[in-house]
From TrEMBL:
Listed Gene3D superfamilies: MFS general substrate transporter like domains
Single GO molecular function: transmembrane transporter activity
Membrane-spanning parts: 32-50, 127-150, 162-181, 193-215, 221-241, 297-321, 347-366, 386-404, 410-430, 442-463, 475-498
Full protein name: Major facilitator superfamily (MFS) profile domain-containing protein
Keyword Membrane applies: yes
Primary site of residence: membrane
InterPro entries xref list: MFS, MFS_dom, MFS_trans_sf
């Protein structure tokens, strides 16, 4: 027996060593993919935030020159500013920006399904690269229109989201990044990795915004064009990242190949059109079954939808505090927050406060909490508890913001609501553990679809409640944040209704 035992040990030792080496290579590959994707995210978001304020200022200047050509003869900056801050200029600016933001979300909604299925067939990297190319092409054309605004109407920017037909836009790009991370990291690590990814966007915002303001002291065109160059670096990162979709998980195309192989007769245009329509019908049915056949996916979609709408309440924050607490603000209605920063010195710290608290939560509080919960809960239930706790924290913060009678209480409420920043990444970690690996791309685009719909609903809803609240007095001035609180409570309910199967919980 002893010789057999030694022989078994000799046979098992190389196998164990091989498994360890394989696991080490996988871990190293996963870390490199995370680093490359994080750099790409930082580059894309950095370029976006670097360009955001300059774009608004350039748009305002273009509109102002069109509506008030007499400013070319003026030398007094106050007189020029008075004309450019006039209601007619600001109304047109709000119209241009408002419609552009709305139209920017449509490609991601309409194309979520086909690009989700494409990601599960052709690969995540392919869809990611297409998305980034489409986004950069749109940004380049916006700059071309702005530069040649003397010959091209500024409203032409409304048609630039058509470039997002290539890849589906930002929502699809974000979905692909998170799906690629899901492919290479195990369930127990996903939530913390998602925290890092979402924190990278906060880093880009915190660094790029003041840099943009500094560069704008010379000319807004400098950060406006520099932003596109930085975005190109993000595209380079996507080119260098390896494909993460395993060949064994690609959806089978056998049926399609068999159909194409049947007979040698050429297919007419009508036959090809019929085949395309049939394929689209099957895709829609497949996506519908994916969403509605599983109760957990339904509740996850509801949670993402309502939480996305509620999160947009922060877009009216500066205008809200200027009215509620009589803080100084330019005499312009519907003024975009970034444009108001120079006139709203007292309220500008709220943006930095929100970003700092989000970063602190994602990089410190949640990883420590996650590690502490590991002792008592399996990973999936741990992430579900974190997501539920995060959305409850957000609800408490929004209640304080709605009822705040002083700036201090409002700032405390904002800080508390920012502590709930782990809801989206934690819930996504739960969602990825509840679906088959072959449908990860479809899951990602389902989430992107619900968030896109939420963003479209949020704009008019928050603007409408804010406008109506301005006709009220007292505590009812907080109506926008009361509405946001109600939506967050609905997201709490949807998250509470998610049930982790015993087998999945055990595996996680």
């Amino acid at each position: 027996m002893l010789p057999e035992t030694r022989q078994d040990q000799c046979e098992e030792t190389p196998l164990l060593g091989h498994d360890h080496a394989l696991e080490s290579r996988r871990s190293t590959r996963a870390r490199w993919i995370l680093i490359i994707l994080s750099l790409g995210i930082i580059a894309m978001n950095f370029g976006n935030y670097l360009s955001m304020a300059p774009q608004i200022q350039i748009f305002e200047s273009i509109i102002c020159r069109k509506m008030h050509p007499e400013i070319a003869l003026l030398t007094n900056e106050e007189q020029i500013a008075a004309r450019c801050k006039a209601p007619d200029v600001q109304g047109e600016l709000a119209l241009v920006n408002g419609w552009k933001e709305t139209l920017d979300t449509l490609p991601g909604i309409v194309l979520a399904l086909p690009f989700g299925l494409m990601a599960d067939q052709a690969g995540r990297k392919t869809v990611l690269m297409l998305s980034l190319v489409g986004l950069i092409m749109e940004e380049v054309m916006v700059r071309v229109i702005s530069w040649y605004s003397a010959f091209i109407s500024l409203r032409t920017v409304w048609f630039m989201p058509l470039f997002q037909i290539c890849g589906g836009g930002g929502q699809i790009a974000t979905s692909m990044v998170l799906t690629m991370i899901t492919d290479v990291f195990p369930v127990e690590k996903r939530a913390n990795i998602f925290f890092v990814v979402y924190a990278s966007t906060q880093i880009a915002e915190i660094v790029a915004s003041p840099l943009s303001a500094w560069l704008m002291s010379w000319t807004p065109w400098l950060p406006f064009f520099l932003g596109v160059f930085v975005m190109l670096l993000g595209l380079c990162a996507s080119i260098s990242v390896p494909e993460t979709l395993s060949k064994s998980h690609k959806l089978s195309e056998t049926d399609t190949e068999d159909d194409e192989a049947d007979g040698d007769a050429p297919r007419t245009v009508s036959h090809r059109l019929k085949a395309v329509l049939n394929q689209a019908r099957h895709q829609i049915m497949h996506h519908s079954r994916f969403i509605f056949a599983e109760r957990n996916i339904v509740f996850i979609s509801i949670a993402y939808l309502t939480a996305t709408v509620a999160s947009q309440s922060l877009l009216i924050m500066l205008q809200y505090v200027s009215k509620r607490f009589s803080w100084s603000m330019a005499k312009v209605q519907s003024l975009p927050p970034l444009l108001a920063l120079s006139d709203l010195k007292q309220a500008s710290f709220l943006i930095s406060l929100k970003g700092t608290m989000n970063l602190f939560t994602l990089l410190l509080i949640l990883p420590v909490l996650s590690k502490a919960l590991d002792k008592y809960l399996p990973p999936i239930r741990r992430d579900l508890r974190i997501s539920l706790g995060s959305i409850l924290t957000t609800a408490v913060g929004l209640v304080l913001m709605a009822l705040a009678a002083s700036p201090t209480v409002f700032a405390v409420g904002l800080s508390i609501s920012s502590l709930g920043g782990g809801f989206v990444p934690a819930l996504r970690s739960v969602a990825t553990a509840l679906v088959d690996e072959a449908e990860m791309g479809l899951l990602g685009t389902t989430i992107a679809l619900t968030q896109g719909i939420g963003a479209i609903i949020a704009g008019p809803l928050m603007a409408g409640t804010f406008k109506f609240s301005m006709t009220l007095d007292g505590v009812w001035l907080g109506l926008p944040y009361m509405t946001a609180t109600a939506l967050v409570v609905m997201a709490c309910w949807a998250t509470w209704m998610i049930r982790v199967p015993r087998l999945v919980s055990h595996i996680g």
